[in-house]
User: Fold this.
Amino acid sequence: PRGRVGMLLVVPFRFSSGKCRELEFLVDTGAEVNLIRKDLVPSDCWSEAPKKLEFFTACGSPLRGGAKICNGELMFQARQVGLEGQELVRKFIGCTLYEADIVCDGIISYSWLEKNQIAIFPHRGCLMLEGRDFSYWLFGDQLEDTIEAWDTLEIPGRPPKVKKKKGILGPDKLSDKQLD
Assistant:
């Protein structure tokens, strides 16, 4: 969409209640905290923010939100760097999200990336979790059907987007069940 800057990743978010929902996150290096659209969070997963924050857009306009937070984990498909033929594993990374009046489902902030030692690789359409002994490529679900193509890319570039699915995650697949 016009005016959008950043990388989009579709990843499941597991709320502190154990409920899980697939969401589209904008990776925004200009954001100072992680955000989520209020209507996407089950009512029993909200708690008061330790300190109410005031938000402003990049152009300085006020943005509603900042009074509540939800905790949970982002679930990435991951593959150890250097082992491109290996099966994907799941990596869960803890995340606190502030409620905000935003258009996208959620926003991942620079400070969260830095705290978790995660680098952005926009030309590959993924992130990298840097560890002491080894690192992992982190993929969103939109790449699930194109991982094989990604492994064989000879020219840096993002694989074509696959139509994403939205909904509540069941044990093995998406379902249409409601959150609340």
In short: The chain has two helices and 14 strands. Residues 143-180 have pLDDT under 50 and may be disordered.
